[in-house]
Amino acid sequence: MITRFLISLSAFAAMLSFASTATAACERYPTVAEEFAAADYVFMVQVTSGRMDRTPADPEGFDGVEYTVQPLKTFKGEPPPELLLYSENSTGRFPMAVAGWYLVFVGPAYGVGFAEPPRIERAVSNCGHSFLLNSVPFALERPPTDLTFDQLMAMVPEISALVERAEGCLHFQGEEPYDEYRRGDIARALMNLRCDTLGSEVASTRARFDGAPEAQTRLDRAMEGNTRPASRPGS
User: Fold this and answer.
1) CATH number of the domain at 3-146, please?
2) Could you tell me if residue 142 is left (phi over 0), alpha (psi between -120 and 50 degrees) or otherwise beta?
3) Average pLDDT taken over every residue of the chain
4) Out of 54-68, 146-160, 189-203, which region has the weakest mean confidence (pLDDT)?
5) Neighbours of 56 (CB within 10 A)
6) Which helix H or strand E contains 191, and what residues bound it?
């Protein structure tokens, strides 16, 4: 029988730190449109609690973490006032912070965990587009419920990281070196920013964000002017 207990703040933080270091071996990444179509619920939530499930069947000592979430704003479906979301203790985990705000895509319940027979629970895929909005909201801070689904998807960290890289590449590609030392600095900056692969990465990400036009537009604008081949040290 699985024993359930409330996690202390320190243990929960340690578990989250461990959990966030792993990523799932995803067979494929759906587009935003595909994941939205397959989901029962797409909504902004706040995590109200987290419980670890102890089990002797798992070498780490726990089967997973069950989170209780409350809807803040719904974009698809009619979720209940509270919903349990399960995060399996595996590379497929989707760790969440208690009190945090998330935009999540939630599909039908399925078998999770290591127990036999498996638990049938709803879960969030870490191969999809669910993401953290704010892990520690301030006491009087209001969730961004005024934003549309499209506006929220344009805030995905992956999009922001590519935009920042594009801005950096554009800056250094346009800089004229004043001596050979600066030329080497620019070349190293372009290499560290991986400007030579930026175009292909943006194209791949843009394709996955089919169904999120504001995110695609943000990428397109960031790439304007990023057409000059990146230099490498010594070139």
Assistant:
1) 2.40.50.120
2) beta
3) 84
4) 54-68
5) 10
6) helix 180-192
Rounded-to-integer distance, Cα 65 and Cα 67, Å = 6
CA distances from 185 to 161, 163, 180 (A): 22, 21, 9
User: Which of 208, 211, 209 lies closest to 28 in space, CA to CA?
Assistant: 208
The model's pTM is: 0.80
**How do residues 6-31 score in pLDDT, each as one tens digit?**
333 333 343 343 333 344 568 789 99
Per-residue tokens: 68: 């209780």
Calculate Rg over the CA atoms of the chain. Answer: 21
Q: Could you tell me the residue ranges of all domains in the chain?
A: 3-146, 157-223
Residue with tokens 């029962």: 40
Which residue pairs from 168-173 have beta carbons closer than 8 angstroms and sit at least 24 positions apart in sequence? 168/193, 168/195, 169/193, 169/195, 169/198, 169/226, 169/230, 170/225, 170/226, 173/226, 173/228, 173/230
Tens digits of residue pLDDT in 107-144? 999 887 677 777 788 999 989 999 999 998 888 899 99
- Confidence at 222, pLDDT banded by 50, 70, 90: very high
Burial class (CB in 10 A: 0-12, 13-18, 19+), 5: exposed
Residue that is written with structure tokens 């080497």 in the block: 184
> Do the beta carbons of residue 65 and residue 52 sit within 8 Å?
yes
